[in-house]
Design a protein that fits this description.
Elements: H1 28-37, H2 48-61, H3 66-69, H4 73-79, H5 81-96, H6 101-107, E1 114-119, H7 124-127, H8 132-151, E2 156-161, E3 168-171, H9 176-180, H10 190-202, E4 213-219, H11 230-244, E5 252-258, H12 263-274, E6 282-284, H13 298-307
Helix pairs in contact: 2-5, 5-6, 10-11
């Protein structure tokens, strides 16, 4: 879904000349003043807040989740007992780390999901930009792991690569050694490998799916080695299959992020973001939000990555207002 600005007069142009995602035009001084004047909130005042948030999303926003978690108050109380407890602990920890309280409550929604990551491990990940892309990838995986580990003991449910076999299940550790020793090479067959390594195993091939799946796809290039439109066909086919299998259209969501400055990757994200047929199922990290900023702007970028496909209407505060030194 497109990241919308509250200011209709401010557009950011994509490198290819297209009009891009709108971004609030707010003076830095004004932002700093408003943040300084805002009362500090560093605790969850009532334990019920997390439970209310989870139930609200299931009942009012992602109604398809009622298939897995229940429809009545009694059913939700029973199925959400563990997620609520985990979510309360998660939100409190996030707040102590400097996360905004509302974002912390929203990130607790990840207790409802299994999170998988599909990584583009084509050779450009190590040959382009003097190896900076791989460094950014490591930082990306570590930040995602940190949040997922708060949501669930298993951390990242599954991590797979587009060109290499294997991968990891229940990933909870630091990724540098693992990704440093990984063998990079090949092309970017996103649709083909998404279906083969993620969807066929954990979604379409899983008739007993009991939790919705959030699929994070991170790439550094345009699609190669498969027919044009195949990625769209794979996504639509998966969503339709889940609906036919009585799991609901909310059983799987997709989020796309780009590493590096490859024009093809940029165009891929633009095309996905502007496709009206996919908007219900996917979210795209706006191309001007550089993943290299994950360290300094983590509480802005991470919620967009992890919540955009789940809560497309959630707009994190302005980039500069959540910067962490």
């Amino acid at each position: 879904m497109r990241f919308k600005s509250s200011d209709p007069n401010t557009d950011i142009a994509h490198p290819n000349g297209q009009r891009g995602v709108k971004k609030p035009a707010v003076e830095k001084q004004t932002i700093e003043k408003s943040v300084a004047e805002e009362p500090k909130k560093n605790s969850i005042s009532k334990d019920e807040q997390i439970g209310e948030r989870l139930k609200d999303v299931i009942i009012n926003h992602r109604k398809g989740l009622q298939i897995m978690y229940g429809e009545t108050e009694a059913e939700l109380d029973e199925s959400l007992e563990v997620p609520i407890k985990r979510g309360e602990e998660m939100a409190r920890k996030l707040i102590t780390m400097g996360c905004n309280i509302e974002i912390a409550k929203n990130l607790a929604l990840l207790t409802l999901y299994d999170v998988t990551v599909l990584i583009d491990d084509s050779d450009s990940m190590i040959t382009e930009e003097n190896g900076q892309r791989k460094k950014t990838l490591i930082r990306f995986i570590d930040h995602i792991t940190e949040i997922c580990l708060m949501a669930k003991e298993c951390g990242i449910f599954a991590m797979r690569f587009m060109n290499s076999g294997g991968g990891k299940n229940n990933w909870t550790g630091k990724s540098q050694e693992y990704l440093d020793h990984h063998s990079y090479g090949g092309v970017t067959r996103i649709g083909t490998e998404l279906k083969r390594k993620i969807l066929d195993k954990f979604v379409i091939g899983n008739p007993n799916q009991s939790k919705p799946l959030l699929v994070l796809i991170v790439t550094d290039g345009a699609v190669e080695g498969e027919r044009k439109g195949h990625l769209k066909k794979v996504i639509q086919g998966c969503v339709n299959e889940r609906e036919a299998a009585c799991k609901g259209r909310d059983a799987v969501k997709f989020q796309f992020s780009c590493i590096g400055n490859d024009p093809g990757a940029t165009q891929l994200l633009v095309d996905l973001d502007e496709d009206p047929d996919l908007g219900e199922s996917i979210d795209v990290l706006p191309v001007e939000f550089d993943l290299e900023c994950l360290f300094t702007e983590k509480w802005f970028i991470l919620p967009k990555i992890l919540l955009g496909a789940i809560l497309p209407d959630v707009r994190p505060p302005h980039l500069n207002s959540l910067a962490i030194p």
